[in-house]
Amino acid sequence: MQTLQLARRFAKSWVLRDITFSVEEGETVVLFGENGAGKTTLLRVLSGVLSPHRGEGRIFGYDLKDRRSVREHAFFLSNDQGLYADLTVLENLTFTAQMYGVKTDLKAIVQRVGLEQAGGKRARELSSGMRKRALLGRMLIAPGPLLLIDEPFANLDEAGKQFVLSILQEAQQQNKTLIFTSHEPDLALQLTSRQYTLRGGTFA
């Protein structure tokens, strides 16, 4: 994955400016920065959710402007979105598997993320920690080689953070490419020493 002078604006305000960097297959990179620095927007652009307004980028050989192909190779895990509130945990995971056209043992996924007792609960009934686990279940289903993860450790107790850490370490062992944002350097740097800091929409 590589970008050259990538930029994105909302209305007349540039929220990303001159983002140039590259990530090798199987590598892990963490993005630091204050709220509003542009971290989440960068992940959304890299995942094909948003298009860049300037600059260039390629994801596994596909131009970022080819958003459909990019989305087939990149999975964006939002901090607070991605579950249908009126569907149960198992129904949400089933929908994800159908969307990607993959066959997997959903009960094993539910067990891996520790939601055996909550598989029949609607997403709206889940605590923040349980929602995070359900979102991670979606990530485990996604077949793409690139994982873009927004604040994986946010709003979790220490046990929850360690659980997320273990899931991300498993992804590394599967040679997934990880780019994630974080406000928790102690945890993030257990996954990688390669880091960038965003400030005002550009790398500091």
Automatic annotation (TrEMBL):
GO molecular function: ATP binding; ATP hydrolysis activity; transmembrane transporter activity
All copies of domain ABC transporter, residue ranges: 1-204
Keywords, in A-Z order: ATP-binding, Cytochrome c-type biogenesis, Nucleotide-binding, Transport
GO BP term, pick one: cytochrome complex assembly
Keyword match Transport: yes
Matches recorded under PROSITE patterns: ABC_TRANSPORTER_1, ABC_TRANSPORTER_2
Pfam families: ABC_tran
Protein name: Heme ABC exporter ATP-binding protein CcmA
Source organism of the structure: Deinococcus cellulosilyticus (strain DSM 18568 / NBRC 106333 / KACC 11606 / 5516J-15)
